[in-house]
Amino acid sequence: MTREHFHDEGEAWDFEQQREDTDWMFRDLKGKKIAQPGQPIDLDIQFIPVAAGANADRFVDALRRAGFEAGSWREDGEDLVEATARRAEFSIRSIWGHEKRATEIAVKHGFAPDGWGFSDDEDG
Predict the structure, then answer these.
(1) Given this model, what pLDDT does residue 4 score?
(2) Does residue 59 contact residue 48 with C-beta atoms inside 8 Å?
(3) DSSP codes, 98-116
(4) What's the whole-number average pLDDT of the chain?
(5) How many beta carbons lie within 10 A of that of residue 118, not counting itself?
(6) How many Cβ atoms from other residues are within 10 Å of residue 4's Cβ?
(7) Rounded to two decimals, what is the model's pTM?
(8) Helix, strand or coil for residue 119?
């Protein structure tokens, strides 16, 4: 879940804007009582390829080495990737920490975040 955020190949990633988007979404979800602060969630972060030569397999491997569960699938001719942080806390600090870490890996592999969402970990 995120507001739209785009990135042009070769442009430095705007972590400040991404953090603002994440903060906005967190406040929105908190206000709607989608989850309670501190509640454990399985945070899913989706990524799209943005650079020529982006390799989903290498990106998934790097995410797994960093402690995420990760996988890829093909949709509309693109390799999409999802990273999951199990039992993350529903807090801006936790969500942003996982999202930033995964995005740092993504940028190195030619991917950019396309949104995040979650289920409470009892669903998962």
Answers:
(1) 39
(2) no
(3) HHHHHHHHHHHTTEEEEEE
(4) 89
(5) 23
(6) 7
(7) 0.86
(8) strand
